[in-house]
Specification:
Layout: E1 15-24, H1 26-32, H2 34-53, E2 57-63, E3 66-71, H3 74-88, E4 100-109, E5 111-113, E6 116-118, H4 120-130, E7 137-140, H5 141-147, E8 156-163, E9 172-178, H6 210-222, E10 225-229, H7 236-246, E11 255-259, H8 269-276, H9 286-294, E12 300-304, H10 310-323, E13 328-333, E14 342-346, H11 361-364, H12 368-380, H13 391-400, H14 405-413, H15 420-430, H16 444-457, H17 461-470, E15 477-478, H18 479-485, H19 496-505, E16 509-512, E17 519-522, H20 524-537, H21 540-561, H22 568-576, H23 578-588, H24 595-603, H25 605-611, H26 614-627, H27 635-650, H28 654-671, H29 674-690, H30 694-711, H31 714-730, H32 734-751, H33 754-770, H34 774-791, H35 794-810, H36 814-831, H37 834-850, H38 854-871, H39 877-894, H40 897-908, H41 912-920
Helix pairs in contact: 1-2, 2-3, 6-7, 8-9, 9-10, 12-14, 13-15, 14-16, 17-19, 17-20, 21-23, 21-24, 23-24, 24-27, 26-27, 27-28, 27-29, 28-29, 29-30, 29-31, 30-31, 31-32, 31-33, 32-33, 33-34, 33-35, 34-35, 35-36, 35-37, 36-37, 37-38, 37-39, 38-39, 38-40, 38-41
């Protein structure tokens, strides 16, 4: 490690070039002769240091058997790397120990602390080195862009294409340096270490399908929409998952699985896809967000179980494929989507033994259907084997089940209780072959339904009843939910666990274990079968009512906990039950009385807001409130109006928000509901404050505070005090703001409101910042950010990042401020927080101006001003002072008002997406 105080070349603090090296196979060399390897490594280090320093670079540190160096100039980095490789080509230079060194070179913006370098560029350089082979030099696209016109004579570049690098979200285009004195031919780059995906792990082995896999991979290489069709249970999903896993390397931007079985509302399809892709709520239409995210990305989308949403899936696939030229969709459905360009592939049954041939263990074992039966039978009976006595019967079972995977798995599960002969006889009672022995003439849907019917008939009466009732759940359920929803005199609570276990043993119920609580689910085909039986029995309405009551109670129980010290567990539980909550809301719309729907909307507000389901929550509120219009004035309706107004505010829809809150206020006044009155006054004050009407805001906040003091509502008091502090802060009265914030913080801590504590620590950090108490301000903001990250509230995390960025700006630390604003901008874009986006854009503009690019800064400020104008969010008077000073300094630095103004207008003319794209690279790209 070099002396940190050692004098070295003066290096740029922004755009630099990194060299990472490592000795391939060094561990084996150390094992062979550690003493000789120690001498060789010392010689290597001396050669490396000389190569770097003789080309105006500096060794930042040694890294085990490698080195990390930095250069002001990319050409110098390349020259140093080639000198090192040439010197190592002679084993005598390293004590006759041949050292094969791999090298990675990358250029980018960096953060420098304590004589070391940090940031994305450093990480990327190291990752590039790790995919190289010993003796190979790899350059990133950024380096090639800098040196390709100035390459020394005899040196050329070999384009190796894009590679996925471990832990990095985007691929890197790499090139190999070709030099006459260096080895030119190498194997393919080391296997890619991490392709992003959300493919679920499989608990059981994948059997057979070699021909299908080969055919599907070929089809997928030349078709952008490939749909696997076939009956329920034929293995479409499992085959699709295997194809996706086998082709990961084709899709540098990832492979994403979207499970649609539990989704009943087709309007939620785009949102479901967005969630699978990791996109959070945005104020714009979800389809627009999807198409913009997918544009230019090379990824595979696996849409599973499309048949019950066929029209919606067809429209979605068509729209996404038309707008995203590199997108590929793999779908599973009982029938094709029916759009242009679709390649349909019918999934065949598993291969089956020929009934006319001898049936021995050796002759039937190669067939996929038999392999599947034997594998699954072993799971329930570890001593199961194919024998001379049972081979023929197993083959017969597989043939009678048409080689349908789900049917075979259900039959194999019976091995725990029945012999294969007994299973075969039971099949005889249910299945009859058509004339001529061709069972393919029967619809596979009916074949599978017959098998499920057969499995159902084998159940005891309590098992049948419970299976019917379990069909009321969507997306899974817990043991507690089963006990509350599905029990009565015929199915007692103390029987539920044993009955569930029995159904799971028979492969009719799947179990998902976790540390918190086990969850259960039905295979979709089984669920549909059980639901038909439930409706036939006339018990559907009663079960639906119990289901609705249970999940309304669950949401109302969670509501106060979401405001408490530990909301994470309640958020997790509501997320797990989201499909059931959606079903409950849907069912309330079918009932004459909308009271339950209004209660659910009121209780779910915090969940929707925190987890980013803002548009969906607002839509539920709109639908329920529309149905409840004729039901008069009620507390539940007033609360639902308040929730709808708050969600509209979150989307920056101020006119709608004001209308909804005024309706809620009027209804609460008529009902003399003081808590509701206080909440609506507070919400209307928030709207006034956001739009700069501080006098009205203060009046509304104070009226709300007075009511909360009368009620003894400690959390409400803390909230009103905080909001009054915001008014004082925005008007420049820092002393009053600090006092109000501290009073509010004391209450928040007393009642355990961690979200409130985080918010108030941030607000106090802003006060400290404006008082130039920078160390204290940073401590407060970092404490606030830590709590927000723990709670997982993305919008508030972005707010803390922007605040820390502003703090760094105040101290002239542009290198630290840039990444903070970039992360804040990314989150703001994801959640659709346009105020947060404007704040991040303004901060990045100031960073760019500080780094010496006032013209780009003017464009970003122009873009931010358009965002503020569109949503009516002006800068506060206090923030306006600092903003105007920074703009004036940048204008002066440019030296030409006309150029600055034109750049501002260019930025103002940008769309939000264009502005975000430019800002994302603002601190790295030239003008």
């Amino acid at each position: 490690m070099p002396d940190p105080h050692e004098a070295g070349p003066s290096l740029a603090t922004d755009l630099v070039t990194f060299l990472f090296t490592d000795i391939e196979g060094s561990s084996a060399l150390w094992e062979q002769d550690s003493s000789l390897m120690s001498q060789a490594l010392a010689a290597h280090d001396a050669l490396a240091r000389n190569a770097v320093e003789s080309h105006e670079g500096r060794v930042v540190k040694t890294t085990g058997d490698g080195m990390h160096a930095v250069f002001d100039d990319a050409l110098c980095a390349l020259a140093a790397t080639l000198e090192l490789q040439r010197s190592l080509s002679d084993p005598a230079s390293t004590r006759d120990v041949p050292l094969r060194v791999r090298c990675g070179v990358h250029a980018g913006m960096v953060e420098r602390r304590d004589n070391d370098y940090f940031g994305r560029a450093v990480n990327r350089a190291a990752r590039i080195m790790r995919v190289a082979h010993g003796g190979q030099v790899l350059l990133s696209q950024a380096v090639v862009d800098s040196v390709h016109k100035m390459l020394p004579e005899g040196i050329s570049l070999l384009d190796l294409g894009k590679v996925r690098l471990k832990d990095l979200s985007t691929p890197e285009h790499v090139y190999q340096v070709i030099h006459p004195r260096l080895r030119a031919t190498f194997p393919a780059l080391h296997p890619l270490e991490a392709t992003p995906n959300n493919l679920p792990s499989q608990a059981t082995s994948f059997i057979g399908r070699d021909k299908e896999l080969q055919a599907l991979k070929q089809l997928l290489s030349r078709s952008r929409l490939l749909t696997l069709t076939g009956s329920g249970g034929c293995g479409k999903t499992r085959l699709g998952l295997q194809v996706a896993a086998d082709t990961l390397e084709r899709y540098p931007d990832g492979v994403w699985f979207v499970e649609l079985a539990a989704l009943s509302d087709q309007t939620l399809l785009p949102k479901t896809v967005a969630v699978a892709l990791g996109l959070e709520e945005a104020s714009k239409a979800v389809m627009q967000m999807l198409t913009e995210h997918l544009k230019g990305r090379r990824l595979l989308l696996l849409l599973d179980n499309c048949e019950h949403l066929l029209d919606a899936c067809a429209k979605l696939a068509d729209a996404l494929l038309r707008h995203s030229s590199h997108l590929t969709i793999l779908a599973t459905s009982r029938e094709p989507l029916g759009i242009a360009g679709e390649q349909a592939y019918r999934v065949p049954s598993l291969s089956l033994p020929n009934a006319k041939e001898e049936q021995t263990p050796a002759s039937v074992a190669p067939f996929e259907a038999v392999q599947l039966f034997a594998e699954r039978a072993l799971l329930v009976r570890p001593d199961f084997r194919l024998t001379l006595q049972n081979a023929s019967t197993v083959a017969s079972i597989c043939r009678r089940l048409d080689g349908i995977p789900l049917a075979i798995e259900l039959a194999a599960a019976r091995v725990r209780f029945l012999s294969v002969d007994e299973i075969n006889r039971k099949l005889d009672q249910r299945f009859t072959l058509l004339t001529g022995g061709s069972r393919t003439a029967l619809p596979r849907q009916q074949t599978l339904r017959s098998l499920i019917d057969w499995s159902y008939d084998l159940l005891r009466e309590p098992e049948k009843l419970l299976l019917q009732r379990l069909s009321v759940f969507a997306g899974g359920w817990t043991l507690e939910a089963t006990e509350q929803v599905c029990t009565d005199k015929t199915v007692a609570q103390n029987e539920v666990l044993d009955l569930l276990t029995s159904l799971a043993d028979k492969s009719l119920v799947a179990v998902e274990h976790s540390d918190a609580a086990s969850r259960y689910r039905l295979l979709e085909t089984v669920r549909q079968f059980a639901r038909e039986r439930l409706l036939e029995s006339g018990g559907g309405e009663t079960l639906r009512s119990r289901h609705r009551e249970y999940f309304v109670a669950l949401a109302e129980e969670a509501e106060p906990r979401l405001l408490g010290a530990e909301p994470s567990e309640s958020l997790r539980r509501l997320e797990n039950e989201h499909d059931n909550l959606r079903s409950a809301l849907e069912w309330t719309l079918l009932e004459p009385d909308c009271g339950a729907g209004l209660r659910l909307c009121g209780a779910l507000y915090r969940f929707w807001w925190t987890r980013g389901y803002i548009a969906e929550g607002r839509d539920w509120c709109t639908r329920v409130l529309s149905k409840a219009e004729t039901e008069g004035q009620t507390h539940e309706r007033a609360k639902a109006l308040h929730v709808a107004g708050a969600l509209a505010w979150s989307q920056n829809d101020y006119p709608s928000s004001r209308t909804l809150h005024e309706q809620s206020l009027a209804m609460s006044r008529q009902l003399r509901e003081q808590k509701g009155i206080a909440g609506s006054l507070n919400a209307l004050g928030l709207l006034a404050c956001d739009q700069g009407d501080f006098t009205v805001a203060r009046e509304l906040y104070e009226e709300s505070l007075a009511i909360k003091r009368e009620l003894g509502d400690r959390q409400g008091i803390a909230n009103s005090l905080n909001n009054l502090g915001n008014v004082a802060y925005d008007q420049g009265d820092l002393t009053a703001a600090r006092a109000l914030y501290e009073e509010s913080l004391a209450i928040a801590r007393e009642i355990g409101d961690r979200e409130g504590v985080a918010r108030l620590l941030g607000n106090l950090g802003n006060v400290a910042r404006h008082r130039c108490e920078f160390v204290h301000a940073r401590e407060l903001h970092e404490q606030s950010l830590a709590i927000k990250r723990e709670l997982g509230h993305r919008q508030r995390i972005a707010g803390s990042l922007n605040s820390l960025g502003s703090l760094a700006l105040d101290q002239g630390d542009f290198v630290s401020a840039g990444p903070l604003y970039q992360e804040g901008l990314s989150i703001g874009r994801e959640v659709g927080d346009r105020l947060g986006i404007a704040t991040s854009l303004e901060g990045l503009a100031a960073v760019v101006a500080g780094l010496g690019n006032p013209r780009r800064a003017a464009r970003l400020w122009g873009a931010a001003s358009r965002v503020r104008a569109e949503v009516g969010l002006p800068l506060s008077p206090k923030d306006r002072i600092t903003f105007d000073l920074r703009v004036a300094e940048a204008r002066s630095a440019l030296g030409d008002d006309g150029v600055f103004d034109r750049a501002w207008r260019e930025g103002y003319a940008l769309s939000l997406e264009q502005a975000v794209q430019i800002a994302s690279n603002a601190t790295e790209c030239p003008t």
